[in-house]
Amino acid sequence: MDENVLGIIAGVFTSASMIPQLVKVLKEKNVEDLSWITLLVLITGVSLWVWYGILKDELPIILSNAFAVLVNISLLTCYLIYRK
Amino acid sequence: MDENVLGIIAGVFTSASMIPQLVKVLKEKNVEDLSWITLLVLITGVSLWVWYGILKDELPIILSNAFAVLVNISLLTCYLIYRK
After folding, report:
1. Contact A3 B55 (CB under 8 A)
2. What pLDDT score does A84 carry?
3. Among A2, A4, A26, CA closest to A77
């Protein structure tokens, strides 16, 4: 299989897996079970992967991790808004 | 920065971010809030990333995603054991 096609498919799966969490938080406005440390570590990690993808010039890596940065920054924003 | 070093650091961050979830489930033996669909989609996605890493011969991609496969299979196993 073409490597880029494989990377795009892999990226769609790992990106899709994050959506239910964001939908759940937006719907229930409940962030009790979220860990902001986990979110910060994850945002740092996926941002570094974007940098790695840019250095390696690999679009699937850049796109899927940039999406993950957005989702996790959204979750962190929800955390700051909805925490009690 | 050397690309492989960057990839390893990125992998350590994204891998580390998964540990709290696994520890929480093992400690509380409560999987009520886990979604097995999310876990299955994630296991599929990270497995495809391992395949991508093998095709591209990129060790950071292979290692961090292989770790993610292990963590998520462990979570799915916990789900099957602890669900009510």
Report:
1. yes
2. 77
3. A26
